[in-house]
Write a structure and sequence with these properties.
By secondary structure, the chain is mainly β. It is built from 1 helix and 7 strands; from the N terminus they run ββαβββββ. The chain is 8% helix and 49% strand.
C-alpha cells in the first residue's frame, strides 16, 4: 500500500511525482487458505524476496513525461526496491479524476533472485516468474 506520495500536475497533465510504498503492507489476495497465505506473505517479506525489515519502503519517482492523445501520458522515472534504483517507463491513462497505470518489473534487477530461472538451474515446477506487475490507481482529490 501507498505510505505517502504526491503527483504534480500542470494544466491537468502529469509533470512529476513521488510515491513511497510500505513494503510491510504486502499481502496475497488470491490464496484463500489462511495458513498458506500467511506462509507466502511471510516468505515474500523475508530476505529471500523483498527483505522488508531492512528495506521497509520502495519508491517510485516520476522524472519525465510526454503527453499523448486520448488522455495518455508516457512516463519515465526511477523505481527503488531493496535499495536498488533502476529506470522504469510506463503509460498512465486519465479517466475522469483518476490516473491508471501498469508497470512490469523484473524482480531480478532488484536482487530478488529466489527461484529465478536466470540464476538457478533445474528448478522445474519450483521456478518463479521474474516479472511482476504493479497496478497503479491514483485518484485526484478535487
Amino acid at each position: 500500500m501507498l505510505k505517502n506520495g504526491s503527483l504534480t500536475l500542470k494544466d491537468n497533465k502529469i509533470v512529476g511525482g513521488e510515491f513511497n510504498i510500505d513494503m510491510n503492507s504486502l499481502n496475497c489476495k488470491d490464496l484463500e487458505d489462511a495458513e498458506w497465505n500467511g506462509k507466502l506473505v511471510g516468505h515474500l517479506k523475508s530476505d529471500d524476496f523483498f527483505g522488508v525489515e531492512k528495506f521497509p519502503l520502495s519508491t517510485l519517482i516520476i522524472k519525465e513525461t510526454t503527453s499523448n492523445k486520448d488522455g495518455e501520458t508516457d512516463l519515465k522515472g526511477e523505481l527503488t526496491i531493496k535499495g536498488i534504483t533502476r529506470p522504469v517507463s510506463f503509460t498512465a491513462k486519465k479517466v475522469e479524476n483518476t490516473f491508471l497505470a501498469s508497470i512490469t518489473v523484473d524482480r531480478t534487477k532488484y536482487n530478488v533472485r529466489y527461484g529465478s530461472g536466470k540464476f538457478f538451474e533445474n528448478l522445474g515446477d519450483n521456478m518463479i516468474y521474474d516479472d511482476f506487475t504493479l497496478e497503479i490507481k491514483v485518484v485526484l482529490d478535487n
